[in-house]
Design goal:
It is a single chain. By secondary structure, the protein is mostly helical. The protein folds into 2 domains: 2-146, no CATH class; 148-178. Helices cover 83% and strands 0% of the residues. It contains 10 helices and no strands. Helix 1 runs parallel beside helix 5, helix 4 packs across helix 8 and helix 8 crosses helix 9 (158-177). The chain is globular. The mean pLDDT is 81.
Length: 230
């Protein structure tokens, strides 16, 4: 909640103190028209794909919802939260494009330009919380998924198994981090997004839709049969 509130405050301040968004968008449309639309659509799917990379940690750490209605409600809530935050962040970053340029952390650069020192401190704390929460959920999800693999079948103590798996993912993560924050953001996020389009988004929109439709029809049919039998 602290991260979400901080993000909304930062985006609100940035939009109010930044350049006129309407004028920027109008000028861009006059120059480019719809020329950048294909790239925007690809970027949208890439971003969605990158977000899907976190699904294994969500599955491992999340609770089981009792029915389809709860699943739909959870998805709509998450959709609204992400959509609002994403739209506000895009509007804020558009209005400060001339300040941060090609920097790795545009939000932090924009905050420094606003002379909002107190928000820089709050942003730094929340960013650290984001990093810690991501590290914890990733490690937890990795352990939940791989602690019972065949390679570790001879390790009887479950605590030792979890230590081994945790140590492995931490070493892998630290090795990847040596590439540097800029390269991870510039290349890693994009490649994860492209990969997830192929192995997550496309299957969800094809096989997933079919299975959900088939399951729903089966549930309805079984419900009717139970009702008739009673």
């Amino acid at each position: 909640m602290a991260i979400l509130v901080t993000a909304i405050v930062i985006y609100g301040m940035g939009i109010m103190k930044g350049q006129n968004i309407g004028a920027i968008l109008a000028n861009d449309f006059t120059v480019n028209g719809f020329m950048n639309m294909p790239k925007a659509i690809l970027n949208a799917f890439t971003y969605a794909g990158f977000q899907c990379v976190t699904l294994p940690t969500i599955v491992a750490c999340g609770a089981i919802l009792p029915d389809r209605k709860s699943c739909s409600k959870a998805m709509w809530i998450s959709f609204v939260m992400n959509a609002v935050a994403l739209v506000l962040s895009v509007l804020m970053l558009i209005s400060w494009k001339g300040v941060y340029g090609e920097t790795t952390l545009p939000t932090l650069t924009s905050l420094n330009a606003m002379n909002a020192n107190w928000m820089v401190v709050v942003y730094g704390i929340c960013l650290l919380l984001c990093l810690i929460s991501t590290a914890v959920t990733t490690t937890f999800g990795f352990v939940a998924r791989f602690e019972n693999i065949r390679v570790l079948k001879n390790v009887e103590n479950p605590v030792k198994k979890r230590i081994i798996v945790s140590a492995f993912i931490i070493v892998v993560s630290m090795t990847i981090s040596m590439a540097g924050l800029t390269n991870i953001i510039k290349y890693g996020y994009g490649y994860c997004g492209y990969l997830a389009i192929a192995i997550v988004i496309v299957p969800f929109l094809t096989v997933g839709v079919y299975k959900n439709y088939h399951t729903e029809n089966v549930e309805v049919k079984e419900g009717v049969e139970v009702y008739e039998n009673n």
